[in-house]
Amino acid sequence: MNKVMSDKKVIALYITPALFLILALIYVPIVQTGYYGLMKWNGIGEMEFIGLKNYSQLINDPLFWKSALHSFLLALFSALSLIGYLFISIILAGKIKGADLLRKIYLIPMLLASVAIAQLWLKIYHPTNGIINSMLLAIGVDNTPAWLAEPNIALYAIIVPIIWQYAGFYILIYYAALKNIPESLIEAARIDGASPFQIALKIKLPLIMNVIKVTIVLAVVGSLKYFDLIYVMTGGGPNGASEVMASYMYQKAFKGFDFGYASAIGFFLLIICLIVTYLIRKLTETKNDIY
Amino acid sequence: MFKKAHTLLFVLILLLTAALAGCSGSNQVDGEGDSKKTIKFMHLWPAGSSKQQNLIVSDIIKQYEAEHKDVKIEVEVLENEQYKNKIKVLSSSNELPDVGFTWAAGYMTPFVKGKLFAELDDVLNDGLKDSFVSGTTEAYAFEGKTYGLPLELNIAPIYYNKEIFEKYNLEVPQTYSEFQNVVKTLASEGVAPIALGNKDRWTGSLWYMYLADRIGGAEVLNKAIDRTGSFEDPALVSAAEEIQNLVNENAFNKGFNGVSNDEGKSEFLNGKAAMYLMGTWELPNFTTNEDIPKEFRDNVGYFKFPTVDGGKGDIDSWVGGPGVGLFVAENSEVKAESKEFVKFFVEKWGEQSVEKAGVLPATKVDTEKVELPQLYIDVLNDLNNASNLTLFADVQMSASVAETHLNLIQSLYGNEVKPKDFAKQHEDALKAEEGN
């Protein structure tokens, strides 16, 4: 077996199919996007080469920066929400009653399709007969907000379901990592007289640090390219109040018929994601990184 | 031994790869081995949301296939927004269906310029021309040639709930000041005067267009868009002011900017809102659609958008125009067959859309032939007496200006932009477009 696996030719042979797929489905489109970004093109008919004009337009486009700000806000809140998930996971992984049931409950949003979640929350937020406003009315609040129609609330109203949507995913990852910590370590600490709080902070956290780093990257990059719930719930409205980078790109391509500009936005988004990933890795670097 | 397993594994991997890669490839399997020609047809009336239209389309296709044994029609159905997106994607790779749907004017222009749509003048001159209502095919013309055959003709009246009007002793308003009184009365009674789902944005645009028409006359908006006039015309600014007055009087249902058209409509259908301004494609819901309680359907009347005192507008001027139309793809391999199918479709649609769906076709309707609901006949008569039809603003404009317009409409309703700036930003967008 070893003889076969150390043969360079064989390795190449086995890598080829996957490599081909990745090239064809990921890298070629990236190059294409970069190419379209240099064009003035409405998606139909002739392209016209305009160099970096799309990018200079992008840098001076207040609407793009507004949507970029929204994306970063979403990323910030997603990253902050990880603290809460970590806390919940530590409690769940400690032996409490009903942990199994709770874990399943947290996982439910993960099993729903994004569009179903969007519909669910649309009903919750409905200005007249939504659950939230009905409750507020019942306790005597007269001036209930129309959650998705108020420019200064809409974005935050959407961030809530997004965070809720991913709760199960991150809790599952943390839970699995915590369960992997050898019981003997915890026992030893306990015998030495460490409090549960100290055990969590000094032993459990450092041991799953690598996993935490991965989740931070996942949460931040995932937020930067987030699209689906926003598209269904508000379409980026009212007037761009909940627009994020990906939905702005979509709007430019499919509603504004400006494929060249949208490709430039896409390429820019890719670069931003790469930079942010690099920064997060730099900031959380330790000696024994696994990636 | 081991070598064998190894080779086998490799072959498996290759097969799997091929299968995966094949997913995106075309699989033109000629199952029956016959020489049928296939026409690919995409339309936007799913059975769920446009039941009647969907039935008619299926019926027409059945008839056509029965009469033309050598043709097979392959249908794909998508809902409105998805349809628009898919057409966009297909057109960028030049793989449009042989026959599909398009909208008129500004929407159609890039497709025509990109040489994706075939000219249909030969089909028109083949005896179809006289059956269309005048002005409908013109909206699908570009530089003197026709690229689409309209199926629908719509106008947008204000539907109202008779029961609610009676309950509060309200008369159908003839003038805008009477209309304002209706709004004030209803708002003070805690009833939403007007149902509006402005998440979709073009819905709010309808109200703006009517106010512009009634204040400044039928041409003022058109001129601003075709650049023979300006968007900073005082009439267009005061129409914007009027929208904000309505908003501040609580004329629209709560949270309208975050509510889709369907949700807005359901406020009206549930009797929670008294009025609803929408195109006549909604007629079936107020006449023949069995899914809506008969008591409600009998309760719906409509009125023309009232005239504004001192305004230049005429009460018989409507917002509306041709809706969707059929195109034939320029690079279709079955162009002749497709054109024939389109012709057949338009003729059959003209008969059946009236009888079965209760929508207005773009072809002339013979009211003598069929039993029609009174509401439908009234609308038809008003349409025949229309002094002017103004095509929906976002369809008139090019895609990027339309996007600006729609976003500004949302801001205007949300009191985020001053009427003067609203006009100015339109003007800037239109000017920038001119420079291109």
From TrEMBL, chain A:
PROSITE patterns in the cross-refs: ABC_TM1
Transmembrane portions of the chain: 12-30, 72-93, 105-122, 153-177, 207-227, 259-280
GO cellular component, one term: plasma membrane
CDD domains: TM_PBP2
A Pfam family that the UniProt record links to this protein: BPD_transp_1
Record's bilayer topology term: Multi-pass membrane protein
InterPro entries the record matches: MetI-like, MetI-like_sf, UgpAE/MalFG_permease
Family the entry assigns: Belongs to the binding-protein-dependent transport system permease family.
Subcellular location(s) per record: Cell membrane
The name this protein goes by in its record: Sugar ABC transporter permease
Source species of the chain: Metabacillus sediminilitoris
GO biological process: transmembrane transport
Primary location: membrane
Organism superkingdom: Bacteria
Keywords on record: Cell membrane, Membrane, Transmembrane, Transmembrane helix, Transport
Automatic annotation (TrEMBL), chain B:
UniProt entry tagged with the keyword Signal: yes
Keyword Cell membrane found: no
Signal peptide boundaries: 1-21
InterPro entries membership: Bact_solute-bd_prot1, SBP
Coiled-coil ranges from the UniProt annotation: none
Keywords (A to Z) from UniProt: Signal
Gene3D superfamilies tied to this protein: Periplasmic binding protein-like II (3.40.190.10)
Protein name as catalogued: Extracellular solute-binding protein
